[in-house]
Amino acid sequence: MKKRSKLDLSGGMGQDKTQAAGFGRATLADPAAEPQHSESREKNTMNANAKSQQSSAEPPAENVQEVAEQAIELRSSQAGNLIRKHVIIVMGASLVPIPLFDLLALSGVQLKMLHGLAKLYEVPFSKNLGKSSIVSLLGGVMPTSTAMTLASLAKAVPGLGTATGIISVSLLGGATTYAIGSVFVQHFESGGTLLDFDPKKMRAYFSSKLEEGKAVAADLKPGETQASG
Fold first, then answer.
1. For the chain, first and last CA: distance in Å?
2. I need a surface site. Which of 46, 131, 136, 212 has the fewest CB within 10 A?
3. CA angle at residue 183 from 198 to 69, to 5 degrees?
4. What pLDDT score does 100 carry?
């Protein structure tokens, strides 16, 4: 009986030692390890979300270039419409059978057109500087200026002279307005302003646009010109 009790006692002590060893291993785990892993996962998730938001907020370079090109095309189209509008206004003013009145109206309309183009291209505008720029540009095309003056004076002659003067001033006025507008559009699109405008460098381009403007003015319907006037 005494031997059995010793065996039972030793067996019980063995189980207690095994359980104690298991408890010891369980308690060896670092209690701060789990929170550190959780914090690391949260940081990774936040970084991934931030990268995703950044990539979605920044459009691809192709889209940016496409939008820029569309903006340039839109502004060029608006500039062309503005020039055509003032060409029609000038041609309408030329229908007034009063000598030299048409030339005064023409210069005012052209200055207003230049102001509109400067505003469209966000270029600083000065009335005096705008006038001098137009005059200096037209000064290099003396035959055209002289022809317009003679055509306007021809309105003083009753009958055929008046009709001839109206037609000539209308076509030349529309053509010069078209050419002036085209010159300044090219100048503004290249980054120029009224301050650095050099009429000598633009006279060849002005002459080519003047011929083009004659065709544009000739193609305009009389009804459009009269309605604008």
1. 135
2. 46
3. 115
4. 62
Q: Which domain holds residue 212?
A: 61-228
Residues 6+ apart with CB under 8 A from 155: 97, 98, 99, 102, 161, 162, 165, 166, 169
Spatial separation of the C-alpha atoms in residues 171 and 222, rounded to whole Å: 11
Q: How many domains does the chain have?
A: 1
Domain membership of residue 35 (yes or no) is: no
Q: Which pLDDT score, from 0 to 100, does residue 185 have?
A: 97
Residue 181 lies in a domain: yes
Q: Is 49 contained in some domain?
A: no
Q: Is 174 exposed, middle or buried (0-12, 13-18, 19+ CB in 10 A)?
A: buried
Question: Is position 219 within any domain?
Answer: yes
Residue 84: half-sphere exposure toward Cβ, Cα within 13 Å: 13
The sign one gets for the Cα dihedral 138, 93, 167, 155 is negative
pLDDT, greater one: 218 or 39 = 218
The answer to whether the pTM exceeds 0.70 is no
